[in-house]
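Hi all, long-time lurker, first post. I run a small reading group and we've been trying to get comfortable going from sequence to structure in the token notation. Rather than ask abstract questions, I figured I'd post a concrete chain and ask someone more experienced to write out its structure so we can walk through it together at our next meeting. Sequence below, copied exactly:
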Amino acid sequence: MCVALLACLGLTGCYDESESRERILKIYSWADYIGDGVLEDFQKYYREKTGKSVRIVYQTFDINEIMLTKIERGHEDFDVVCPSEYIIERMLRKKMLLPIDTVFLNSPNYMHNVAPYIQGEMNKLTQKGDLAAGRYAVCYMWGTAGLLYNKQYLKEDELSSWGCLWDKRYAGKILMKDSYRDSYGTAMLYAHRRDLVSGRETVENLMNDYSTVAMDTVEKYLKLLKPNVAGWEADFGKEMMTKGKAWINMTWSGDAQWAIEEAAEVGVDLGYVIPEEGSNVWYDGWVIPKYAKNVEAASYFINFMCRPDIALRNMEATGYVSSVASDDILKASIDETADYVDASYFFGPEATHVKLRNTQYPDKSVVERCAMIRDFGDKTVNVLEIWSRVKGDNLNGGIVVLILVVVGSLCIFQIRRRYILYKRRNVQRRRRRCKKYR
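-- Answer (accepted) --
Happy to help. Here is the structure in token form:
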């Protein structure tokens, strides 16, 4: 949304510090994560329920850690933020969050609409001796990590294992999300696939094993994978898959759904599958940081986002799946072209045999072989070092030489430029002296 439009609607990315902070709601979230008109409708809802007007300052981030740093070190006074589950866990551990109010003037508590399954997953983040994590965080969107594939070149059974990523037949046709967490978990699951089959290991334990042995295993497998990878993508994977330039993309379910819909319009048939070893289920949630200045409006906003009609609008706009499990959303999500799935874990017993897209609501059997990746804690630095080495090693000798030549040329250019400036200044100084003593 452009700045001009934001300004016209009372929404902006900045604000005048002379304004009363009680009339400002500062939201910090991902780009393109809220449906059109939803923020404006919240302003009306807030005015109706409280009699107060609020102007929204909406800012976006694309990396969880950058968002966290701004709040933790910069003490930024955002009122409501939308981090991923592992950052929520880190914020809870560091006592950076305020409890969310659930009592509202003239308004129901829509937070009760969040699926019990989601609430249970979020409460796993609870810190010892503290309130349940659900008091501090309300899940907004959730999804899985899996494989988006082009049905023209691959059949679903060829992607039954994460091992397809290491298959030389697909070299140069594979895209990987530029996500160290998902890649770490994928490598661990594939490396221990036999342990998973025998029951000696679980998906949750493997994806959250940060021992030295585990990290060595991950680095080894990711370096073996690297020659097959055409690119580590943050957002361009959807377009490349839609255009048929890649065959396989390890990606998130929301991006997969967007790509499937876009590709269908140009006659490209894409599918999405979660390999048998299992995968990551991720959760993004709304929280109120301890430096917030408008806690009341923040609580009302989180409540409003859990209203079924608003949740549905956000789903339709983003392609991701709301944590809200109302009957309205179940009815709106039915797709007669989709296969039957058991979504009773999310919607309840009435959804045991319903036609839903597997990108949005995976079958119960699939969810049972998935798990949430937890915060790496102090091991984050070590994992990032592995990620840097894996991606950095993609440079072959010729590229390295070229980079060195370019860098060297730039250095020579800068040295020569500074020398010329130095000479000119000396000449100017001599001229000024001459004029002074004439």
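A couple of things your group might point at:
The longest helix spans residues 397-436.
The longest strand covers residues 137-150.
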